[in-house]
């Protein structure tokens, strides 16, 4: 659908490189309101970067894309200062994220949750491409409606897709699809859990899998599997707080083994 003068068509391209003992954001190109804050280094060589979308949410007709590339041996942590929001709209809106992690590089992709308001027509697509020697921990959390306000997602459409490739080979193709037809089928609607989280970590092992399977509580339903050395963890929750807490605790537990670094939560999470 063609955009109008009131639509946001925004693009952000980021490139990270290892330079002089630490990772630098050496490429930053933007169109529209998508941007990043200045790079932070709370743990020395790792570059912490916060993605910003100043209007605060995605409305009908908006088309946003983010491209993030890590060169060999770079290490970046990317997060957001607040939840993403897809607002009620008659027209479709989209967010496309393309992530490339080259040999020896490490990326932590840790955005806060995406909230889908009732009546939205939203599509989010995430493409992750890892080189054979890359390391990655990332998550996505999708919240249908605003359950803490007793607001249910009882109309609208969500199409959220995630694809992971390693050395060009497709390892995971995931899709969350909610349409008016799915509201009448609990299995298609995640048994009426409004919040769904997915965490991916690699290279992982059986110990990491066992650790993930110990997560739970707070009304969570969690499952974990290991495909080769790729750990995939899924959680269903009644609202976002327990889901995000579980993902954060698991990231902190996995980080030393997978990335060789102690946990260092982004400062923005404390505000």
Automatic annotation (TrEMBL):
Signal peptide annotation: none
Pfam family, one: UreD
Assigned keywords, A-Z: Chaperone, Cytoplasm, Nickel insertion
GO cellular component, one term: cytoplasm
Predominant localisation class: cytoplasm
Keyword Nucleotide-binding: no
InterPro entries per UniProt: UreD
Keyword Chaperone annotated: yes
Single GO molecular function: nickel cation binding
Protein location: Cytoplasm
Highest taxon in the source lineage: Bacteria
Subunit (UniProt): UreD, UreF and UreG form a complex that acts as a GTP-hydrolysis-dependent molecular chaperone, activating the urease apoprotein by helping to assemble the nickel containing metallocenter of UreC. The UreE protein probably delivers the nickel.
Known function: Required for maturation of urease via the functional incorporation of the urease nickel metallocenter.
Protein family per UniProt: Belongs to the UreD family.
Protein's name according to its UniProt entry: Urease accessory protein UreD
Lineage: Bacteria, Pseudomonadati, Pseudomonadota, Gammaproteobacteria, Oceanospirillales
């Amino acid at each position: 659908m063609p955009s109008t003068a009131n639509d946001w068509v925004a693009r952000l391209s980021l490139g990270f490189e290892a330079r002089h003992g630490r990772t630098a954001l050496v490429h930053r190109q933007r169109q529209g309101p998508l941007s990043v804050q200045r790079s932070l280094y709370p743990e020395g060589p790792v570059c912490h970067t916060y993605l910003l979308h100043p209007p605060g949410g995605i409305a009908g007709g908006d088309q946003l894309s983010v491209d993030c590339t890590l060169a060999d041996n770079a290490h970046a942590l990317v997060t957001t200062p607040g939840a993403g929001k897809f607002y009620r709209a008659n027209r479709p809106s989209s967010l496309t994220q393309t992530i490339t992690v080259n040999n020896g590089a490490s990326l932590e992709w840790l955005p806060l949750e995406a909230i889908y308001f009732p009546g939205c027509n939203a599509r989010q697509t995430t493409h992750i491409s890892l080189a054979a020697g890359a390391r990655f921990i990332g998550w996505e959390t999708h919240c249908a409606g605003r359950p803490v306000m007793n607001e249910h997602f009882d109309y609208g459409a969500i199409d959220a897709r995630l694809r992971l490739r390693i050395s060009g080979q497709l390892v995971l193709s995931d899709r969350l699809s909610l349409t008016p037809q799915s509201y009448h089928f609990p299995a298609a609607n995640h048994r009426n859990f409004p919040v769904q989280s997915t965490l991916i970590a690699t290279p992982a092992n059986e110990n990491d899998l066992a650790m993930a399977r110990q997560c739970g509580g707070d009304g969570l339903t969690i499952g974990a599997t290991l495909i080769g050395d790729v750990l995939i963890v899924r959680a269903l929750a009644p609202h976002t707080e327990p889901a995000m807490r579980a993902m954060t605790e698991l990231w902190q537990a996995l980080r030393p083994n997978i990335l060789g670094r102690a946990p260092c939560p982004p400062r923005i999470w404390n505000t």
